């Protein structure tokens, strides 16, 4: 099974805001168009062992945009208050099954997932790691990622995608000038 949603940005909240792919470009794509997609995102990246079926997606969009505002420095008082309210909601709780397996549960899994995401964003923005949040240098990307490279000079959200595209473009331009 192939994962439907991108992960690997370094923090869960960064993976979440990447669900608005190519943000701010003409090719912007919504990866969470409905509650089914939001549930699929939770199923892929969340802690729950059973499928999550949210009733709607609107709260996810609102929280995603609030997290993006917070992480890009465009935070307004209303955004800060919204994230504080969401972060205060109940988060998933661990429980041990009779077979000794760890399971995560919540009365409202979608709401609990939003609480986890808001908490992750608040923790990130107040941590030393925040200085290493970067915007992808890919001209059609713009995703945020946590640069965990030793020198702190990573340029692309993904070497396989954006980094490879940039290298191909540079090679083609170099070959065209030789032509």
From TrEMBL:
Residues 132-174 form the Zinc finger CGNR domain. Pfam families: ABATE (PF07336), zf-CGNR (PF11706). InterPro entries: ABATE, ABATE_dom_sf, Znf_CGNR. This is Conserved protein containing a Zn-ribbon-like motif, possibly RNA-binding. It comes from Amycolatopsis australiensis.
């Amino acid at each position: 099974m192939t994962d439907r949603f991108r992960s690997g940005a370094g923090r869960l909240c960064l993976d979440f805001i990447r669900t608005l792919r190519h943000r701010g470009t003409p090719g912007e794509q919504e990866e969470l168009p409905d509650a089914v997609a939001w549930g699929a995102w939770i199923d892929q990246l969340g802690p729950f062992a059973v499928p999550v079926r949210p009733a709607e997606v609107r709260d996810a969009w609102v929280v995603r945009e609030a997290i993006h505002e917070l992480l890009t420095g465009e935070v307004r008082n209303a955004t800060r208050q919204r994230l504080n309210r969401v972060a205060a909601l109940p988060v998933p709780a661990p429980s041990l099954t009779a077979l000794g397996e760890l399971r995560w549960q919540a009365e409202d899994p979608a709401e609990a997932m939003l609480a986890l995401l808001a908490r992750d964003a608040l923790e990130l923005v107040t941590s030393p790691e925040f200085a290493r949040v970067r915007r992808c240098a890919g001209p059609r990307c713009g995703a945020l990622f946590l640069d965990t490279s030793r020198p702190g000079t990573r340029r692309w959200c993904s070497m396989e995608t954006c980094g490879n595209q940039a290298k191909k473009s540079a090679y083609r331009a170099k070959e065209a000038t030789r032509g």
